[in-house]
Amino acid sequence: MTFCSRYLKGMKTKFNRSERNFDGGMNEFNGGLKIFNHPGRTLGAGRQCHLDPNELEQAHLYVLKNCDAVQSFLEEYSQTEAISSQTLSDKEWDSQFIEWFKTRVSQMHKSDQSEEIKDLLALSRGPTPYVTSYKGYLCNGYRFHIEEHDKGLRTQNSGVIVVGENGIDVESIDYYGVLVEVLELQYLRGKRVVLFRCKWWDVYDRQRGVKIDEYGIVSVNFHRILKTNEPFVLASQVSQVFYAIDNNYKGWHVARKVQPRDTYSMPLEMEDDVENLDHLNAAVQDALSSSPNFVPTTMSSTEGEISLVRCDMEQISTSESAPKQTKKTKKRHL
């Protein structure tokens, strides 16, 4: 059966099937925005739902602020005299930027019809209020499920971690949380962006919210939820963590980062290390070649000679091999 399956076209077998957490791979890039081209694959049937105006604005702002092509517009907007002379709250600043960005891109679209400008135009108009909700998603080599799906199961796929900056002293900080909902935003021209709605733990309080011991092990307090107006995060930015209950402290859980499936942490071979090994081998060969009864043993290859002498033990002298003993067999008389 295994032999025959190799000749059946379109038949999935263990020889040609995709990896368990295969996210579909990168789509063909057509010159537009990369934020519309992140690989990923939804799990299960989608459910249509409606976002209220506040949630829709939060999702739209997060996508804009985390799109590489919009960073230059954010700087331009911040440097305008009309904005710099006003004292605006964060909410007012964000709301005015959305309108300014929409007008700015519309003006650029009149003279530039490139794919990037077309995608920027679709991005500036914002997503539709009707989004598709899923219970799972595959991306970055991880299999994510929402928190509700994990209840009652022995497995755990809802823990998330995002590396960001706190904006105060530009210190890198890890944000820990759990996945609540997978949302697929829909834009003009059939463009889509997948966001994770998450519940974040309070990582700013280093005493009651998060602890890091001398071994680098991180513990988070599930009773301390971070109050933030940014519950969303791009699916492409997320890695996975596993939470284990800390029996010493009530409400605390130890967070352990998960390695993506079918990936392995391999040490990098530096050029300096290779050169040092070459010098070490040369010194050992010189020392051994001066000893009596030493016969250099090497094998040639396309890249040069490879030494077959062990450097981690002392030299052992052996005598000539003993003659082989033949086993005597008795003849059977019929």
Helix content: 25-40%
* Unreliable sequence segments: none
> What is the subunit organization of this protein?
single chain
Mean pLDDT: 80
Number of helices: 8
- Category by helix and strand content: alpha+beta
Main beta-sheet strand count, sense and barrel state = 10 strands, antiparallel
**Counted beta strands:** 15
Region (Disordered): 315-334
Organism: Cuscuta europaea
Domain DUF4216: 183-254
Biased composition (Polar residues): 315-324
Give the arrangement of secondary structure elements.
Elements: H1 2-5, E1 41-43, E2 47-50, H2 53-65, H3 71-78, H4 81-84, H5 90-111, H6 115-125, E3 130-134, E4 136-139, E5 142-145, H7 147-150, E6 159-165, E7 172-186, E8 192-200, E9 210-212, E10 218-221, E11 232-234, E12 239-245, E13 252-257, H8 271-289, E14 298-301, E15 304-307
Antiparallel strand pairs: 1-4, 2-3, 3-7, 4-5, 6-7, 6-12, 7-8, 8-11, 9-10, 10-13, 12-13, 14-15
